């Protein structure tokens, strides 16, 4: 006990901020080299090795300079990996959902009808708004992007938009809903962990969230009229190719409708995704028999392959052939591998006390209301980089600044709002964060490709600091 107490006291004094930042600097440098060398193939293994190499540096610093035993690192790694176990299962099901919805004709039907309804001039703004509404109703950005997001990617590509613009609009809308929906686990966690009533937290977030999404929608609306798009003839040709390749029928829209009803009834995500996959497979066997037999003469094998493996369907239209190719569960394995390695890195950073060292650097910058909110936002973003899991980042950011906000007399809802403005929406912008890896894999767009176009996600933390600087509806409690 005495030895443990001395060790904890030693860790409270060290590591310094500079020593704590060394793994982050090395991570950014190695990932830059990795991405330049491997490009889009970096997720096949090079990025994972990078994360493990930086994890080894954390262990070296911890055991060599801070006297942290290996058992502490091992315990932190196990805890981190176990915390994302359910997310890994959901990832596998999302991969299966993408394959089943595509081969069954569900996504092609959504694209087909969407091409006839959504005008290219308003496509980007419409995509952002549609994803926002769906995400508010479901409370999940992941589910929104894995379902309606995939269909919108297909529509946008058919209309000639760049992948970055399409993914940016989809992600901006999806994370707006995930941030303010009372059904969102993230929103509940951010408010509940700080003792802030849920709806009080949501109402207070609207002050920064509504201006952020409004600016984003304006940008997407303006960009929609200036981005070069396909001609009406090209869009009609693509829609015709869809109708030739698949049996397009309104009956297939029952699958997303029933999926939405299950989500609205708050059926657990794993059950909802599984039943949606099952429905898609059944509808595929009924309506897309020819496509199924092209995958494999045995319908049973074809159904299984559409869920777990890679599939490709012939088409005279190269864009359509690329769009309808799927990877199923197997396509999620590099992402799952990367998440496990990221959790190892986050565990090593936490066990070595380096997360605390980085946080102290920002806490020392607190000089007033604006710097307090700015330091909270900067810490949240930095934790997203260092720990790579938004759930842990939200809890840590709240716990680290709770006493400071109380001491300075600010309401807890200011802290909960700033935490969500900084952590929830920026997690998807970090390539090795669980959110960034997931959405990049689901949409088939590299994180750095869509990052500059996720205007809502970029504006939100800035808006939080701006509102704090203006002092709008920010009150201090009288000192007792």
Look at the helices and sheets and give the structural class.
mainly alpha
Number of structurally distinct domains: 2
The number of helical runs is 25
Please report the distance between the alpha carbons of the first and last residues: 38 Å
Number of strands: 0
Average pLDDT figure: 84
Q: Can you summarize the main beta sheet?
A: none
What string, H for helix and E for strand, traces the elements in order?
Answer: HHHHHHHHHHHHHHHHHHHHHHHHH
Give the overall silhouette: globular
The level of helicity is over 70%
**Percent of residues in β-strands:** under 5%
Summarize the structure.
With 480 residues, this protein is mostly helical. It has 25 helices and no strands.
Helices and strands, with pairings:
Blueprint: H1 2-13, H2 17-38, H3 46-65, H4 70-83, H5 85-103, H6 106-117, H7 123-138, H8 141-158, H9 163-180, H10 185-192, H11 198-226, H12 232-245, H13 254-264, H14 269-287, H15 289-295, H16 299-308, H17 318-324, H18 333-351, H19 354-363, H20 369-387, H21 390-408, H22 412-424, H23 434-443, H24 447-450, H25 455-470
Helix pairs in contact: 2-3, 2-19, 3-18, 4-18, 5-8, 5-14, 5-16, 6-8, 6-12, 7-8, 7-9, 7-11, 8-9, 8-23, 9-11, 10-22, 11-22, 11-25, 13-14, 14-16, 15-16, 18-23, 19-20, 20-21, 20-22, 20-25, 21-22, 22-25
